[in-house]
Amino acid sequence: MRGDRDNLIVRKAITFSLKIIRYTEVLEQNRKFVIAKQLLRSATSIGANVCEAQNAESKADFVHKMKIASKEASETLYWLILCERSDGYYFDVQIRNDADEIIRILSKIISTSKMA
User: Fewer CB within 10 Å, N side or C side of the chain?
Assistant: First the structure.
């Protein structure tokens, strides 16, 4: 991962992953293990793929890795929606907003990269 400049999506993905780790710990304390595990995997995968894309071998490889990150972000949003709509589940609206923002940023990066 390149450390020579600030990268908005890398920074947001890492910050989001850290928030999700704390969030899923609360879910686990409430014995919501299945959702917590699924959410932790998909959400932290966003950052892993974004970081991997920073060292892509080509523009096509970069776009591919960002598309994977986008798919993981969409899956994460799905798990968050389930938490929001299920009785007895802790929900944090800011995490949902962060997921929405990451999806928008990834979509913009993908569409801009395809045109360039």
Answer: C
